[in-house]
Design brief:
Helices cover about 55% and strands about 15% of the residues. It is α+β, with helices and mostly antiparallel strands. A hairpin with a 6-residue loop joins strand 1 (about 5-10) and strand 2 (about 20-25). It has one domain (about 5-105).
Length: about 110
Amino acid sequence: MEDKPFKEITLMTRQLGKMKVITSIMQAAEFIVNEWPGTDTERLDIAKHALLECYDGTLSPGIVAWLLLMQQRKPTFTSRQLVARHQTTNWKSGARERCGAELNRTSL
């Protein structure tokens, strides 16, 4: 499979207090298998589904990165809800600003 890079994100691991920097879809897949925190299978399934959709070309790597961050903060987002939300707000225009603003409003 072709690795797809994205702007680095930092995720919590299953080891208390440890964080990991992820910069690609392949690293994200390894993280999900080896270091995803907790036992919440719904959030884990959503993250796995998003990675598969990225490899299929349905989701961009940047959207998957944002979704992974949101799954650790707001487990209610599905990949389809995320895509629908950003299609209505024109994801391509100012995506980093909206993503950063969303993350700033979201607390752990």
